Amino acid sequence: MAIEINGAASQATPRPGQCLRTFLREQGNFGVKKGCDGGDCGACTVHVDGTPVHSCIYPAVRAEGKAVTTIEGLATADGLHPVQEQFLEAQGFQCGFCTAGMMMTAATFDDEQRANLPRNLKGNLCRCTGYRSIADAVCGHGPDGHGPDAHDAGADVSGAQSPAAVEPKSGQLGDNVPAPAGPAVVTGTARYALDVPADQLPGLLHLKLVRSPHPHARIVSINKAPALAVPGVVAVFTHEDAPQQLFSTAQHEHYTDDPDDTRVLDNVVRFIGQRVAAVVAESVGAAEAGARALEVEYELLDAVFTPQEAILPGAPVIHGDKDAVATRIARPLDNVVAEVHAELGSVEEGFAAADFVHEHTYRTQRVQHVAMETHSAIAWVDDDGRLMVRSSSQVPFLVKRTLVRLFDLPEESVRVVAGRVGGGFGGKQEVLTEDLVALAALALKRPVQLEFTRTEQFMATTTRHPFTIKLKAGANRDGYLTALQLDVITNTGAYGNHAPGVMFHGCGESLAVYKCVNKKVDAQAVYTNTVPAGAFRGYGLSQMIFAIESAIDELAVGIGMDPLDFRLKNMVRPGDHMLSTTPEPEEDVHYGSYGLDQCVSLVRDALDRGKERYRAAGLDDLGPEWVTGEGAALSMIDTVPPRGHFAHTRVSLEADGRFAVDVGTAEFGNGTTTVHAQLAATALGTSAYAIQVRQSDTDLVEHDTGAFGSAGTVVAGKATLAAALELATRIQTVAASLTGVPLADCRLVDGAVECGDRSVPMKETYDAARLQGVRLATDGNWGGTPRSVAFNVHGFRVAVNTGTGELRILQSVQAADAGVVVNPRQCRGQIEGGIAQALGATLYEEVKVDDSGHVTTDILRQYHIPSFADVPRSEVYFAKTNDSTGPLGAKSMSESPFNPVAPALANAIRNATGVRFGELPIARDKIYLALRDRTLVPN
User: Fold this and answer.
1) Which of 76, 129, 234, 733 has the fewest CB atoms within 10 Å, i.e. is most exposed?
2) How many CB atoms lie within 10 A of CB 391?
């Protein structure tokens, strides 16, 4: 019996053992996504005879004779399904990769199920949004989230405030313009990296990797014959077939920022999961069979798994074959990738002057990005001999540069395109798939695709760097910091991608936000035979801020001062030097605006109101076993990475009178597409709805460093604004020549140029410009300097059960200084998503590595990311500032919301229980054991 798909009988027959997800995608239903292939995430949800199922674990053969509905079939001839309309109205998505599955589940809900979303959405995970907008969408609350069914009665749901720095104008700066991709996201037609119809890639091959089972070994021999004998296997690539060029998988504007310690395929493996060989076949199944058949002989080498052991004399040397100067590894024979040693003033004198000193060792764990779309890429050689790569990447231009360098290709012979990207968080600021598909496509002259499994994501991509921070801090009774001393060891794993940058950045703004004449830092980034670390939201700051902000609270308690008052007394203010490890401040970092004091006040006031709300509602007495407390933390971040971050943008008037904006930055839920449209619309006197944004294609513009380091708005957006302003002048000039009206009396309005009392339609202006030989397309560039600083303050009110260790978040508040907020709803969503991801890292997320170097949390059901029920509804507030360096006064706000969450929660737990938790995650069992073994300290 045929399977009916979206009302039409399928002519295809499932293969033996095939799951419904892959079968549906083979029929062109690309809205059915892969997030786990284990029934854990819900991204693949479809309806079978009206019942939602996870199609990745549903055998396709069971659907024979049944009606299957995918997101592509949810709408009818009369229009969108109500749940699709609600997700559009509330913008219940960011990257959108999970959205189809979320809607397919929610579309079946009745009123009773909608009233209990924590239970009924437990099978659908989202990494971007923090779930508030999803709740509003499912319950039909609209864009402002108002309604009687808010899923956390304790939250001030009206708390998200729009800034008053500018008066919003429809479709321009300050307006809640919906994401341009919204209709495509909710109908399943948004195209991600692998959403390419089969007829566009004839002869597509699939690549699978043989990975090392050993933490440290030398490859003695590889026998390809058994793999090549597997039916369907076309080729096997090993270190003998790959470039010998050393490089780093990390991608930065300056590739010399990272050590060259990696090969495409190496004859030495340095962690369990490192790629050993690539098997290419006609199908995924054949490639997997070929990988299993490959015979590899290893010579085992000694391994080391902790950075503390790795820096001891006599420890196994992981990159001892590397030349320190040529590879930019600080001390390869000592396993030290990078280090910094600095002292400002004299900490010895500072501690002598202190009335209270706090000493503690703080530890942060490995955390995985868990972008719902795994790493993937397709490469092929086109008819002109160009290498074409389609990748799930945050940095397509840097990927192109790396491929050119690795394979010694002319720049014009490589093109890289990123489709819509299903989440990044820094994890896709790497080259982890593109080099392999390029290697195979160049050799075989056929399209080659590689898609990582969720297990590969955990064991063989990158994680957040674990930090061990020995901290000593002093303060006097007058409430001033007298000394800050930190001894930091970071674990970069087997390779040093991002190790120097994460270490230096972590030791930067976390210290610079406080005035203290005596500061000392000794930090080392250290190799171990474990899964590599890399770029992760916050880029080292979240780890350091956890330690420093925890210590700030301990100092305040120690001298008998309110922790927020202590911060207000010691935090930098305009005019103060921002100093961390150098005696002079960064010359291009300025206070473009300053709202940290506002953020502190906003959080303090919100916590006071929350306490009163609970008291008025009679919810403040939870029983004798419960203790409550409040805590807060602050953070500062430079709005752009150092040493240049470049963007080129082109803005043009099209023949139909609309505008096009060509940018290099990728869209992965960061919202830059909307921002570009709004900035251009504001400069051009039109609406974002009249602007088409084309992006993330290396053929579109000259260069773009990429969407990382919170640079999407303040770098690429600045380039867009510059191009749009120049285009506006050109259009006015043409219109003035048509009408004879002085240029100063011509202004752009939506769809026309008003010249005195005459209105010239944009299409007429376009035609006139062509006749005059005037090019109505302009270019904008920005180099990432000067830079400003952005601020976030987070506050929690919690309750802890002293008998069980249960933690309840009664209130969550974040205030942000984002300058002039281009799109308040979108910015609020970024903050809420950062809070949710940080809560996971604070309370339960941990990539665990056993004593043999093996990752044991390698599927989602073993690695707990926040589900709907885990995330409180946070109040979000914006300081009212206008930044002098950002486009139209805007600042960055994508990484920074993550940074103050962990210390704020730890401080609230400390305030409630008297126990300082200095190691993440602060899991419930840790709370229980600490309270069991220690008498509570009275508040």
Assistant:
1) 76
2) 31
CB 188 within 8 A of CB 71: yes
Query: What letter represents residue 329's amino acid?
Result: I
**Token pair in block for residue 55:** 């199609």
321-338 as b/e: b if 16+ CB within 10 A? ebeeeebbbbebebbbbb
pLDDT tens digits for 361-403?
999 999 999 999 999 999 999 999 999 999 999 999 999 999 9
Report pLDDT for 936. 53
Residue 142 clears pLDDT 80, i.e. is over it: no
Amino acid, single-letter form, for residue 321: D
Please give the sequence-ordered ranges of beta strands (E in DSSP) within 803-901, or none if there are none: 807-817, 875-878
Backbone angles phi, psi at 73, to 5 degrees: -105, 5
Cβ-contact 853, 316 below 8 angstroms: no
Identity of residue 467: F
pLDDT at 620: 84
Angle in degrees, CA 474, 475, 477, rounded to 5? 150
Peptide bond before residue 921 is cis, with ω within 30 degrees of 0: yes
Coil/strand/helix, residue 731: helix
Q: What is the dihedral of CA 167, 168, 173, 179, to 10 degrees?
A: 160
C-alpha–C-alpha distance, residues 25 and 188, integer Å: 12
The angle, 0 to 180 degrees and rounded to 10, between the axes of the packed helices 824-843 and 901-913 is: 60
* Contact between 799 and 622 (Cβ < 8 Å): yes
What are the tokens at 608?
């006071």
Give the length of the chain.
939
What's residue 147's pLDDT? 44
Q: What tens digit of pLDDT does each residue of 726-741 get?
A: 999 999 999 999 999 9
Residue 882: predicted pLDDT = 97
> 475 - beta bridge partners?
356, 481
Name residues whose C-beta falls within 8 Å of residue 636's C-beta, 6 or more positions apart in sequence.
509, 510, 512, 513, 572, 578, 596, 789, 790, 791
How much of the chain exceeds pLDDT 70, in percent?
A: 97
Paired tokens of 462: 């990158």
Q: What's the pTM?
A: 0.96
Numbers of helices and strands, H then E, in the chain: 27, 31
Distance of alpha carbon 111 from the chain centroid: 34
